TrEMBL record:
This is DnaJ homologue subfamily C member 28 conserved domain-containing protein. Residues 15-66 form the DnaJ homologue subfamily C member 28 conserved domain. Signal peptide: none annotated. It comes from the Bacteria. The lineage of its organism: Bacteria, Bacillati, Bacillota, Bacilli, Bacillales. InterPro entries: DnaJ_C_subfamily_28, DnaJ_homolog_subfam-C_membr-28.
Amino acid sequence: MEEKYNDLIGDILERSGEKDNYEGKGKPLSKNYLKMDVYQNFQKIAKDAGYLPEWVKLQKEISTLISCCQGEEDVQVINEKIKKYNKICPTQLQRRQITMNTISEEKNNWK
């Protein structure tokens, strides 16, 4: 039994109707493209396209919530969002939950 190659990007482009209709098709890759690894190229292309990962959006939302935090109910909402953030962000960027005692310190950490 032959295993089929899994082309995720190709599948996405095909579903959107853009598989063979994109800028740069058939043109040689730039020299800068060849100097970076796949992840670095993805980051650059995504940034140029205005894409923000979900965890970055959530990070900004948490930062705003922390700066407006008024009490324990707000802390509970923020901590739920921190749990979600920690599940989807890169491991080295995970954060601890906050308390009313640490809120002023966390305002600086989440900027």
